Amino acid sequence: MKHFLILAFALTLGGCYKKNIDGDFSVYEAFELKKGKKVITIEPNEYTATLRMKDRKKFQLVLPGVKGKKFTFKFPKQFMVPRANGNLKLSARDLNQPVDVELNFNTNTNRSAAENVVESCSRTFYDRICRWETTPGRRVCRTDSHGRRVCRNEPPRRRRVCRSVPRTIYGSRDVTVRFISTEKLYIADLFRPSSDEIVATYKGREYSSRREVLNRGVCRLDYPRNRRF
How far apart are CA 29 and CA 200, in angstroms? Predict the structure, then answer.
């Protein structure tokens, strides 16, 4: 169920579907989940778990060590989830599972100090290259107005042909960058329906990082000697 909440959160953040979130599932008291028409009892234990987001309408909680393994949760229509840190609750009726769920999620973002690095760069120029080409002579025949076949020999022709040829020059430039890392923490508590009795807790994390360019200097090209561009 909590997994369902995670799905809702992901949908509002970016509309990304078909992804998996790995986490830990701690079961304190035995409780039940539905798998189709069957009811499966989840015994107290520590489990590895995966939230498998399927589409806008459903997701799966995958528990490899449990009979049935995959449990489907339906997505409530018009359910809105905050885009940042927050808390939300869903009832067993909303989820079509015999548990209530309370989800807390936090997003922590860290930015490193700016640093200067040297990157490779390039620029493409176009050279105009010309050469002489010779068309071989040939014999050309035609039929004149009197029905006679008339032939003549065309002499070889020589012409100047020019075209633009790409030429890439490589070099380097100074770049100021910093690295941004993001950790998304999902914590979901499962309750017996309409009560404050917690039966299980799911904890999942997602990590991502990216490089942000703050300033990019001019590309210093390594021109070949004795050549102008």
Answer: 7
